[in-house]
Amino acid sequence: MQAGTAVGNLAGVIGVHPEEAAVIEQLKAGSEEAFAWLISRYQQPLYSLIYRILPNPGDAADITQEVFVKIFRGIGHFQGEASLRTWIYRIALHEALNQRRWWSRHSGREITIEADESSCGQEPHGGIIDTLVDQQESPFEAAAHAEIAARVEAALREVPEPFRTVVVLRDIEGFGYEEIAEILNANLGTVKSRLMRGRAHLKSRLAPFMAAASRRPSPSSALPVSHACSTEEAV
């Protein structure tokens, strides 16, 4: 049986996770279908991870592409010491942090921690907001949740490394403690300590916003939706 058909037509079942061993076998055999499945499965999650380390969308997109090049070139040496997902995230994190260090050395200053502010009515360039806003909500609720999401994203960028990375891997990407330890090549105690400190940093940065939000009027007493944007700008 040809390598390209050993696990069926992967391109036709995108979204269904096949057996990892079979996928690895296909990738090592150079299957274009297997690689297409890999890209469809991991491109957006990896971009989101990298974007939280490199807040420039262009840089994040470039590094995401570079990660897939590294995967393609390195899959032949993959021996299964960790899961395929863990191995892929380890590459992505390594490339993103290397790029961050390079940028810091050559710019002579730290990477900006400010979120990408969009004008009213415009979508920001990716980030946590994409997964937090419920499109079925009322316009007021959607706007309020979008503001919260943007604040969380901005606050997350202020959490210092390596605590931020652990928070992203655990609370956003959903990795277990053991998987995070494998990705970072750290012991379990270190992972848990960094997560605790990262969450504490995030909470302290969100505290003023949450206190202010608690004093705002409820949706029932808010202005009509047509005035919501100007009202937020005036706050």
List the SSEs and their pairings.
Elements: H1 20-28, H2 32-51, H3 57-74, H4 84-107, H5 129-132, H6 139-158, H7 163-172, H8 177-184, H9 188-214, H10 228-234
Helix pairs in contact: 1-2, 2-3, 3-4, 4-8, 6-9, 7-9, 8-9
Describe the structure.
By secondary structure, the protein is an all-alpha fold. The protein folds into 2 domains: 1-109, RNA polymerase sigma factor, region 2, helix turn helix motif (Rna Polymerase Sigma Factor, Chain: A, Orthogonal Bundle), CATH 1.10.1740.10; 124-235, Orthogonal Bundle (Arc Repressor Mutant, subunit A). It has 10 helices and no strands. It has helices at residues 20-28, 32-51, 57-74, 84-107, 129-132, 139-158, 163-172, 177-184, 188-214, 228-234.
Task: Provide the β-strand percentage band.
Answer: under 5%
> Within the CATH hierarchy, at the fold level, what is the topology of the largest domain?
Arc Repressor Mutant, subunit A
CATH uppermost class of the largest domain: Mainly Alpha
Number of domains: 2
Structural class by secondary-structure content: mainly alpha
Order of helices and strands: HHHHHHHHHH
N-C termini distance: 65 Å
Shape: globular
CATH architectural grouping of the largest domain: Orthogonal Bundle
The portion of residues assigned to helices is 55-70%
- Residue-averaged pLDDT, rounded? 75
Query: The biggest beta sheet, please?
Result: none
Figure out the total of helices. 10
**In CATH, what is the homologous superfamily of the largest domain?**
Winged helix-like DNA-binding domain superfamily/Winged helix DNA-binding domain
Return residue spans where pLDDT drops below 50 for at least 5 consecutive residues.
1-18, 109-129, 131-135, 225-235
Radius of gyration: 21 Å
Number of strand segments: 0
